[in-house]
Amino acid sequence: MSDSSARPAKDRPWVMRTYAGHSTAEASNALYRTNLAKGQTGLSVAFDLPTQTGYDPDSPLSRGEVGKVGVPVPHLGEMRKLFTDIPLTEMNTSMTINAVAMWMLAMYQVVAEEQNPDMSPEDVAAQLAGTTQNDIIKEYLSRGTYAFPPEASMRLIADMIAYTVHQIPQWNPINICSYHLQEAGATPVQELAYALSTAIAVLDEVKGAGQVSDDDFEKVVGRISFFVNAGVRFVEETCKMRAFVQLWDEITRERYGVTDAKMRRFRYGVQVNSLGLTEAQPENNVQRIVLEMLGVTLSKNARARALQLPAWNEALGLPRPWDQQWSLRLQQVLAFESDLLEYDDIFDGSHVIAAKVAELVEGARAEIDRVQEMGGAIAAVDYMKSELVSSHAARRARIESGEEVIVGVNKYESTEPSPLTADLDGAIMAADPEAEQTARASVEAWKAERDEIEVEQALAALAEAATGTDNLMVPTLVAARAGATTGEWAATLRGVFGEYRGPTGVGGAAVAESGAELTAVRERVRATGEELGGRLRLLVGKPGLDGHSNGAEQVAVRARDAGFEVIYQGIRLTPDQIVAAAVAEDVHCIGLSILSGSHMELVPDVLDGLERAGLSDIPVIVGGIIPDSDGRRLRELGVAAVYTPKDYGLTEIMGGIVDVIRKANGLD
C-alpha cells in the first residue's frame, strides 16, 4: 500500500538576495556577513551614486551623495574591505553597476586574486560567479547613472562580454535591466519590447566587434541574463514572464541561429516593484511585496533564478537590517513552507494565461519592430524615453482620478495609528553622516601610499587603448592593480569619449486630458502670470548625482500642461548651475527633486547660492523621500513647501506652486 502522505521532491529554490550597501565598506561588509548567516544565498551590492557614475568622493558633484544609496568604492583598498572574510571564489555576487561595470569587475577580480595567492590569476577568474548589471541603454531611459556617450558605452559592454566569455566563463557580464523601465512607467508590452531591443543591440555590438568567434557566440547568448520588475498585478506579471521566455527563445533562434536550447534559456533575476510602495500606510507594502513575488515564482517554466525584495519602509527611507530580514523571511516562507516547488508549471493548459501571453507577445513584437525600423535601441533612445514619460503620466492620471486604486492613498485612507511608524525617525536607518568625510580621507590616504608613476603610466595606457580598438578590460585591470581610483579611471575615458547628457522625454510627452481640476489650475496660472507681467516660469532642478528623474519629469510635464513655462535641463546639476539657470531664465519658482537622501546638503547649497545672487525672494519647493524631521528643518531654512511620495496629486501640487508664487510676490 502506497503512502499517500509522502510529499514529492522539491525543486531547488531561487537564489535569495538582499540589495544592500551603505555608508562605508566596513559597515556594508558587516551587513553582508550578517545576511549570509541568516540564510541569504547570494550577495547583491548597492554602490553609492559617485561610484556608479564614475566620480571620487572629493568631486564637487559627489557632495551629499557619498554612502547614501549604497557603498562608496573609490579604489581597490575599499573593495578589499567590502569583501573581507567573504571568499569570492565561493560566492555568487550581483553588482548593480552599469557605466563603470568594467572597472568594478576588474577590482573584484583583483581582490579575488589577492584572497587566493596560491592560485594563478586565470584559475581565480575561472572560479568567479556572479553578475554585473552593465545595461547602459536603460540608464539613458530611466535611471541616469551613465558616464559616457552611448557608442562608447556599448564598446565597453562588448569588450567586457568578450573578456568574460574567455576568462570568467561563470560570470554574467550583462544583466539587461527592465526593472527601471517599469519604475519609469513602462507598460508590460514596453518593458518586454525595450528590454529585448536592448539585448538585440548588445548582441549585435558583440557580433560586430569581432572579438568572439562564431563558435563562441552561443556562449555569449547563454551568459546574457535579465533583471526584471514585478508589479502587484501578479497574473499579468506571470504572463509577462512567460512572454519573455517565448520571445527570447524566438530571437536567439531566429536572429542569431542559436541551436542549443540551453543557451536560449531566458535567465533572469528580480527586484520586485518599488514604484508601488507607499509612504501612506506603509504596512500595506508587505502584502504588495508578497503578491509581486508570486508573479515571478508561480510559473515554473518562467521562474526567476534570483530574487531580492524591497523592505516595507523603502518609501520612507533607508531600511534597517531587521526590515531587510523581514523581506528575506518572506522568500524563505514561500520556498520552504509552501508546496510551490513540488509541482510542474501550474499554468500549462490555462487558456486564460495563454491568451494573455499571446496578447503581450503580439504587442511586444510590434514595438520591437518599430524600434528596429528606427535603427535599433541606441538610435531609438529619444523615442523610447518619450513613450515612457507618456506612459508614466497616464498612470499618474489614473491614480489621481481614482481609476487606478492605491489602497491607503486614494481609497480607504482612514487608518489606525501604526506601531511600525509610531517613531517615524526610528522606523528607518540613517546613513552614517561621517561617511563622506571618511571616504574622502580614504582616497587621500590611498593616493599618498601608491606609486604615482605606475598609476600615471597605467592611465596613459588606458587612454591610448581607448583611442584604438583594443579590448579595454586588459588596461583596466592594470590600472586597478596600480591603484588608480574610480574617478581617475572614468575621467581618463571621459577625456577620450567625451561627456554626455541624456534626453528628458518631457517635450515629446503626451498632453494630459484637461479635467475640471486642471482647467481651474490652468486659469490660476494664467491669471497670476498676467498679474506679474508675463507667463509663469518654473525651474525644475535635479541637483547632485541622483538619476531617478521620473518624479521631476512628471512634475515638468504636468506644469507644462498647467500653463507654466517649464525650464528642465535634466539630471546631474550642481547647485551653482541651478542658481545660474534661475538667474538666466528669470524664474518665478524653483522646484528641486532629490530622491537619494542628499537633500540636507544640496538644498541649503541652492538656498545659499540664491542669496549670494540676490534672489532669495524666489520661492524654492522640494520633493523627494524626505523624513518629517528633515522636512521641518528645510522649511525652517526657508523652503516654501516640501512634497513626499504621499503627495500623489500632481495637479494639486501645481495649485500649491501657484500659492507659493503668489505669497512670495505679495499677491494674496
What do you see in this structure?
The model has no long low-confidence stretch (mean pLDDT 92). 50% of the residues lie in helices and 9% in strands. The chain has 25 helices and 15 strands. It folds into two domains: 412 residues, Methylmalonyl-CoA mutase (TIM Barrel); 150 residues, Rossmann fold (3-Layer(aba) Sandwich), CATH 3.40.50.280. The protein is of the alpha/beta class. Strands 1-10-9-8-7 form a five-stranded parallel β-sheet. It has a five-stranded parallel β-sheet with strand order 2-3-4-5-6, covered by helices on one side. α12 links the parallel β9 and β10.
Beta-strand segment tally:
15
- Biggest sheet, in brief? 5 strands, parallel
How many domain units? 2
Distance between the termini: 87 Å
Q: What is the CATH homology-level superfamily of the largest domain?
A: Methylmalonyl-CoA mutase
State the helix count: 25
Which structural category do the helix and sheet elements fall into? alpha/beta
Strand order of the largest sheet: 1-10-9-8-7
Helix content: 40-55%
Tell me which CATH architecture of the largest domain applies here.
Alpha-Beta Barrel
Query: Based on CA inertia axes, which overall geometry fits?
Result: globular
The CATH topology of the largest domain corresponds to TIM Barrel
Strand fraction band?
A: 5-15%
Rg, alpha carbons: 25 Å
The low-confidence runs, each spanning 5 or more residues with pLDDT under 50, are none
CATH class of the largest domain: Alpha Beta
Compute the average pLDDT: 92
Organism: Nocardioides glacieisoli
Keywords: Cobalamin, Cobalt, Isomerase, Metal-binding
Family: Belongs to the methylmalonyl-CoA mutase family.
Subunit structure: Heterodimer of an alpha and a beta chain.
